[in-house]
Amino acid sequence: MAEVLVYVDHVDGAVRKPTLELLTLARRIGEPVAVALGAGAADTAAALAEHGAVKVLTHEAAEYADYLVVPKVDALQAAHEAVSPAAVLVPSSAEGKEVAARLALRLGSGVITDAVDLEAGDEGPVATQSVFAAAYTTKSRVSKGTPVITVKPNSVAVEAAPAAGAVEALSVSFSEQATGTKVTGRTPRESTGRPELTEAAIVVSGGRGVNGAENFAVIEALADSLGAAVGASRAAVDAGWYPHTNQVGQTGKSVSPQLYIASGISGAIQHRAGMQTSKTIVAVNKDAEAPIFDLVDYGVVGDLFDVVPQLTEEIKARKG
Amino acid sequence: MSLRIVVTVKYVPDATGDRHFADDLTVDRDDVDGLLSELDEYAVEQALQISENSDDDVEITVLTVGPEDAKDALRKALSMGADKAIHVEDDDLHGTDAIGTSLVLAKAVEKAGYDLVISGMASTDGVMGVVPALLAERLGVPQVTLLSEVSVEDGTVKGRRDGDAASEQLEASLPAVVSVTDQSGEARYPSFKGIMAAKKKPVQSWDLSDLDLEAEEVGLEGAYTTVDSATERPARTAGTIVKDEGEGGKQLAAFLAERKFV
Ligand SMILES: Cc1cc2nc3c(=O)[nH]c(=O)nc-3n(C[C@H](O)[C@H](O)[C@H](O)COP(=O)(O)OP(=O)(O)OC[C@H]3O[C@@H](n4cnc5c(N)ncnc54)[C@H](O)[C@@H]3O)c2cc1C
Ligand SMILES: Nc1ncnc2c1ncn2[C@@H]1O[C@H](COP(=O)(O)O)[C@@H](O)[C@H]1O
């Protein structure tokens, strides 16, 4: 059976959920061979094996943390040479897309970004994408070279499928470009203890209607009652009420949770672009004409400062 | 010293319009108004700020690959303050994908001459966010991308990239390819004077032969990806909408419980 390379997104050996989703999708096309790079690479093996990786290629080097993007492209190219895979799958993060694109160019291949589903086809893997702020669904293929495809988080339910997960050292020689862009400083993002926005099953977002940084406590309380991540519209971010890392939409994160709750958000096209593929959508807005109501499964026309705290209390009561 | 900046800008269908696909499954550019991609305005803005903060002679060229109407995007960038413009236009470019676009841009940037390329973070129609990385790969120069802060001094470009897990400080020597996010600072509006001045600024037109490119290398024919189908997403079935009469939160909780979220 053909092998499929899966690029592993991990933090010091802890594999992030989107990578496990990639393994699940990779098994539809062939046998997943994972590529884990940087500090802690070998520690990823157990989790990867449990989710179907037949092999885990690892390489540790300071370059992966000290220089931008290119060292990872070099490594994937080396893995491609070693394995001759049927496809290469990469998580659709900002960096993942850049790595994938440069790799594709080097391989003389095409690249598809932000797939939301993947299936085997007669002429290679077929990727489903959601375009024009999710107004259209397209199916496309890479028609030249080894398909390189990036897949959005929350596109598929993770399935365990134990496999050997044999660790093998990958040998990588870095290109001249590898050290072109130096990372001279790094400030890790502070953990809030809440789930990662793109990975969360439930996202609770606030917009301009929240009307102040301190009022975001109302949104956070609802999120915590549901074990959800917190999102924000660009209006709320631009006003300085919530960090940009939590922005949902075209120039923020694209999320696809089981449940999305929007409060005080009008539903502009650029916001919808980042949340329209959510499975269930709920909104609270005091304007009955707000476009967000066109998307909802359930909407409450009312003041969020009345509705949201009552909802939070009721959820807590129901959860006992 | 002089500093030659090339800003890549894309002409895109208006996101608030009714965007759709043409029969050949390329983006329909006929029925929707187009404009300079808002995200590329940030690139023009940063070029202007680098110029204003520099003691060097800075020349800003805006470059687009696109149909006849894409001139509007160049005109807007010129009225913001760029010095000159290059329009790469050729019927054979129809249907070019990201890999092909980066090839055309790389050839054009090299022909124009550059020390620094500045791109937007993503185009508002394709939203791939990969062209700047591809351009850097093709040019063989550092990519310093997705910056929310950028500065150029003594042949070095520095910037801040706010990633998923961390905020990083980056540094590279020129020549380099930079892309900037919408966090890099509001783009200026063209002044009346700027709009008038733009009318006199030079706009060069190049076709594929000017760039030593063959038709097969670009366009639908040269594309590395094939779109097999595009279907309009079925409208979401109308949901339940209630007016809060004091029990809105409880009603919502009941809905969430029914859907097993609580
Ligand atoms: C290139 C570009 C990229 C963009 N990218 C993004 C992006 O990534 N994400 C994004 O979100 N936006 C993005 N935008 C901005 C987008 O166009 C909208 O401006 C933004 O989404 C509006 O945010 P909002 O809904 O919070 O604010 P508004 O549109 O002002 O809506 C606020 C809503 O709150 C309601 N409200 C007010 N008070 C209350 C109350 N007490 N209780 C209940 N409801 C209340 C109002 O009725 C209103 O509907 C982008 C724009 C451009 C041009
Ligand atoms: N046809 C084009 N002409 C000029 N610049 C482009 C074109 N397509 C993409 N770009 C540049 O590349 C950036 C990223 O585009 P994309 O990878 O398509 O999302 C844009 O913000 C532009 O700066």
TrEMBL record, chain A:
GO biological process terms, semicolon-separated: fatty acid beta-oxidation using acyl-CoA dehydrogenase
Which N-terminal residues, if any, form the signal peptide? none
What SUPFAM superfamilies does the record point to?
A: Adenine nucleotide alpha hydrolases-like, DHS-like NAD/FAD-binding domain
Mind telling me which Gene3D superfamilies this protein's record contains?
HUPs (3.40.50.620), TPP-binding domain (3.40.50.1220)
Q: Pfam families from the entry?
A: ETF, ETF_alpha
Kindly list the cofactors needed: FAD
How and how many cofactors are bound, per the record note? Binds 1 FAD per dimer.
SMART domains (alphabetical): ETF (SM00893)
Domain named Electron transfer flavoprotein alpha/beta-subunit N-terminal: residues: 4-183
Which keywords belong to this entry?
Electron transport, FAD, Flavoprotein, Transport
Q: Which residues bind FAD?
A: 208, 233-234, 247-251, 264-271, 285
The protein's matches in PROSITE patterns, at most eight in alphabetical order, are given as: ETF_ALPHA
Gene Ontology terms for molecular function: electron transfer activity; flavin adenine dinucleotide binding
What quaternary structure, including any partners, is listed in this protein's UniProt entry?
Heterodimer of an alpha and a beta subunit.
The record's function comment reads:
The electron transfer flavoprotein serves as a specific electron acceptor for other dehydrogenases. It transfers the electrons to the main respiratory chain via ETF-ubiquinone oxidoreductase (ETF dehydrogenase).
Family per record = Belongs to the ETF alpha-subunit/FixB family.
Q: What is this protein called?
A: Electron transfer flavoprotein alpha subunit apoprotein
| Organism of origin | Streptomyces prasinopilosus
UniProtKB/TrEMBL annotation, chain B:
Domain Electron transfer flavoprotein alpha/beta-subunit N-terminal residue range list: 24-215
Q: Does the keyword Electron transport apply?
A: yes
Q: Which Gene3D superfamilies match?
A: HUPs (3.40.50.620)
Note the SUPFAM superfamilies from the entry.
Adenine nucleotide alpha hydrolases-like (SSF52402)
* Tree of life domain: Bacteria
InterPro entries given for it? ETF_a/b_N (IPR014730), ETF_b (IPR012255), ETF_beta_N (IPR033948), Rossmann-like_a/b/a_fold (IPR014729)
The Swiss-Prot or TrEMBL record lists the needed cofactor(s) as: FAD; AMP
One term of GO molecular function:
electron transfer activity
Any one annotated GO CC term: cytosol
Give the record's keywords alphabetically: Electron transport, Transport
Subunit record text: Heterodimer of an alpha and a beta subunit.
Q: What does this protein do?
A: The electron transfer flavoprotein serves as a specific electron acceptor for other dehydrogenases. It transfers the electrons to the main respiratory chain via ETF-ubiquinone oxidoreductase (ETF dehydrogenase).
> What family is it from?
Belongs to the ETF beta-subunit/FixA family.
Q: What is this protein called?
A: Electron transfer flavoprotein subunit beta
Lineage start: Bacteria, Bacillati, Actinomycetota, Actinomycetes, Kitasatosporales
